[in-house]
Amino acid sequence: MIIETTELFGELTADVIDNAIVLCQEDDKIVLTIHDIKPLYDLMVLDKRDYLDGRHSARFDISYDVWAKIYKNEGGFNIETDTECLSISDSDKFFDCIFKLFQEECVPELEWKIPGQDALIRSSETFEGDEEGDYNTEFSVHQYQGRDLLSIIQTHDGEAEVVFTKDELKVLVKYLNTIIPTMNP
Fold first, then answer.
1. What is the pTM of this model?
2. Cα distance between residue 73 and residue 7, in whole Å
3. DSSP for the chain?
4. CB within 8 A of 161, min separation 6: which ones?
5. Which of 4, 32, 84, 151 has the most C-beta neighbours closer than 10 Å?
6. Digits of tens for pLDDT over the chain (185 positions)?
7. Residues 6+ apart with CB under 8 A from 151
8. CA–CA separation, 98 vs 21, rounded Å?
9. Contact present, 106 and 168 (Cβ < 8 Å)
């Protein structure tokens, strides 16, 4: 997918490979994962003037090795690593394309907190106007009066609700197939 084309930097493209978004521009390539959704959302809603606080530019971390470089008086920003740099001139179009790819092409990921017991589904979902920008589901098994219970906590827009996409349900089945055989009756 071509996100944008500029005279100076050429095409900025995005492709989904192995559940990650690979951004390319000229010879540079940067990979974004589901773990980057929250920082990307935070960057999208960032009050640039307050964040820069009088500086000409500032770094905004997306992950441990990827960051955005934002500039005063610029509508776009750069996404950078130690060796790569992508220039985004239309930030609104960039975020629209990236979040659309995450929602339509990437599937949720299961992250075990305690192997075989507690886990977190990192969702690829984002929601317009969601101040938290985070839509993950936490599963944990605990005992109550000698019985194992499965607790499901999902917070979206300040409300605890259990809502799953089809892809999230597939991950839930994987989790349940792992945990149910180990549970006490």
1. 0.71
2. 20
3. -EEEEETTTEEEEEEEETTEEEEEETTEEEEE-GGGHHHHHHHHT--HHHHHTT-SEEEEESSSS-EEEEETT-S-EEEE-SS-EEEES-HHHHHHHHHHHHHHH---EEEEEETTTEEEEE-----TT-SS---EEEEEEEEETTEEEEEEEEEETTEE-----HHHHHHHHHHHHHHGGGS--
4. 154
5. 32
6. 999 998 888 999 999 998 899 999 999 999 999 888 889 989 999 999 899 999 999 999 999 999 999 998 888 999 999 999 999 999 999 999 998 888 888 877 777 877 777 777 777 655 455 444 556 778 887 777 777 777 788 766 666 666 666 677 788 888 888 888 777 76
7. 138, 139, 140, 141, 142
8. 8
9. no
